[in-house]
């Protein structure tokens, strides 16, 4: 009991003196000078010494003198001005008014051709030690990849970038391997397996922007009705009927085993990019799976 009292006294001694509103340690720095390279947007002003103040970002009169317990109410009542120019849907959009967006953005190394269609060779070198000859593509063994093919996408991408990616990193049975070879011939594509014969990211995905490798070459063929900058597009919908039957059977088996309902949020593809065959119409899946449609 006495320890508790002591603790409470110590805590109270640490409380801020009345008046100034204490900010969380993760709050944006205040009082810092706006560098000459930064332009503040209209409606946001630094003080007469060129420093950030509360009212640079917050459109609330004397926010620094308000009580902590009133903040939530103030925020609700002034949704459009708690952060000036709001309400903001994405935090980043607020930040990028002052900060340069570029250094915060991840480099999309799949954007491999510039506006004039010229190769961005520095992007090739993320994965290749030397820029490969596009006219006469070298064999896999001579490609000089910086990492084994089944690891080269990780680091930038998670192992689980989407549903089912992890479940796919397995070696197909001989019957499926036969099917893959036939599909490669029929569609004139490559569906390369990993160093241990397993399905990997590049089995389904091309790492290259369309046009980097000639489309007449099997490695150059891909489904791309969107740009790499846009990425794929989804429309909320039921599963595509092509693999619905297969999926349902497997799901029921899973449910039976786990004794719990399994719910998956499948999305319908409305636009594709960087896939070797379209998945939207089932072609990609059918290169390996047989469905009883
Ligand atoms: C560079 C812009 C900027 C400046 C300058 C600034 N803030 Fe903020 N403040 C923010 C942002 C961004 C948030 C987060 C808003 C959210 O989460 O909705 C925030 C949140 C807050 C909050 C609510 C969250 C919390 O920490 O309790 C308070 C209170 C607050 N600011 C007070 C102040 C005060 C007082 C000052 C001046 C001493 C100040 N701010 C200066 C950008 C700024
Ligand atoms: C009104 C302009 C303005 C807005 C809006 C703004 N910042 Fe800043 N920010 C600054 C200034 C000025 C500095 C200090 C100078 C510098 O580091 O460039 C700074 C510094 C920083 C720093 C470096 C802090 C440090 O300790 O070195 C980070 C990180 C940062 N801001 C992130 C953000 C984020 C995240 C947001 C959005 C929530 C944001 N900023 C919104 C103006 C702004
Ligand atoms: C994200 C990693 C990555 C980047 C970036 C990358 N490649 Fe590749 N590249 C690979 C992988 C993995 C393979 C082997 C699988 C394949 O053929 O698609 C490959 C294969 C190739 C091949 C041989 C194709 C074949 O199988 O016949 C050529 C040619 C090639 N890359 C050229 C390039 C050029 C040119 C660039 C730059 C514009 C580039 N690559 C950028 C990962 C990458
Ligand atoms: C240096 C980092 C980096 C590496 C390595 C990398 N990627 Fe990406 N990738 C990105 C970025 C950035 C995007 C843009 C979307 C995002 O931010 O997730 C992207 C997007 C994609 C997309 C979605 C299409 C698009 O344009 O948005 C696919 C598919 C993809 N990558 C496949 C791969 C595959 C397969 C590999 C390995 C051969 C690979 N990536 C290696 C950074 C990387
Ligand atoms: C069995 C085939 C298959 C495998 C294996 C696979 N993917 Fe995908 N991936 C797809 C399909 C299909 C899409 C949907 C987009 C499309 O069709 O353009 C997709 C989408 C993506 C996207 C875009 C996600 C988004 O919502 O923007 C990224 C990034 C991606 N894959 C990365 C990877 C990486 C990294 C691996 C390996 C760890 C991998 N994929 C393995 C088939 C596959
Ligand atoms: C390159 C061959 C290949 C492609 C392309 C492919 N799969 Fe697979 N798929 C496999 C392998 C290998 C397995 C794991 C072993 C098995 O189930 O036979 C698998 C497993 C699955 C599973 C079971 C996962 C689990 O949890 O057990 C589903 C569902 C599935 N695939 C759906 C799809 C769909 C949908 C597509 C098209 C977007 C697709 N596959 C494309 C080879 C492929």
UniProtKB/TrEMBL annotation:
Keyword NADP on entry: no
Superkingdom classification of source: Bacteria
Region span, Disordered: 212-238
Alphabetized UniProt keyword annotations: Signal
Signal peptide feature range: 1-20
Biased composition range(s): Basic and acidic residues: 212-229
PANTHER family in alphabetical order: DISSIMILATORY SULFITE REDUCTASE SIRA
UniProt name for this protein: Doubled CXXCH motif domain-containing protein
Organism: Thiolapillus brandeum
Source taxonomy: Bacteria, Pseudomonadati, Pseudomonadota, Gammaproteobacteria, Chromatiales
């Amino acid at each position: 009991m006495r320890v508790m009292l002591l603790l409470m006294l110590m805590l109270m001694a640490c409380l801020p003196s009345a008046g100034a509103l204490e900010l969380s340690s993760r709050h944006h720095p205040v009082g810092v000078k706006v560098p000459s390279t930064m332009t503040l947007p209209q409606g946001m002003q630094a003080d007469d010494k060129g420093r950030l103040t509360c009212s640079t970002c917050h459109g609330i009169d004397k926010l620094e003198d308000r009580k902590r317990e009133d903040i939530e109410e103030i925020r609700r009542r002034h949704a459009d001005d708690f952060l000036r120019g709001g309400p903001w849907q994405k935090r980043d959009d607020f930040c990028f008014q002052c900060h340069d967006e570029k250094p915060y953005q991840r480099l999309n190394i799949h954007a491999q051709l510039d506006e004039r269609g010229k190769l961005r060779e520095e992007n090739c070198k993320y994965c290749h030690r030397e820029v490969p000859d596009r006219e006469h593509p070298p064999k896999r063994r001579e490609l000089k990849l910086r990492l084994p093919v089944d690891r080269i996408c990780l680091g930038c991408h998670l192992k689980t970038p989407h549903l089912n990616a992890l479940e796919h990193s397995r070696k197909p049975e001989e019957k499926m391997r036969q099917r893959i070879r036939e599909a490669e011939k029929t569609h004139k594509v490559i569906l390369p397996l990993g160093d241990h014969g397993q399905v990997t990211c590049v089995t389904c995905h091309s790492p290259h922007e369309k046009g980097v490798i000639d489309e007449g070459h099997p490695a150059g063929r891909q489904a791309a009705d969107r740009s790499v900058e846009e990425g794929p597009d989804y429309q909320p919908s039921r599963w595509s009927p092509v693999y619905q039957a297969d999926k349902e059977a497997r799901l029921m088996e899973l449910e039976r085993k786990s004794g719990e309902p399994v719910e998956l949020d499948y999305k319908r593809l409305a636009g594709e990019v960087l896939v070797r065959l379209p998945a939207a119409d089932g072609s990609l899946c059918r290169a390996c799976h047989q469905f009883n449609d």
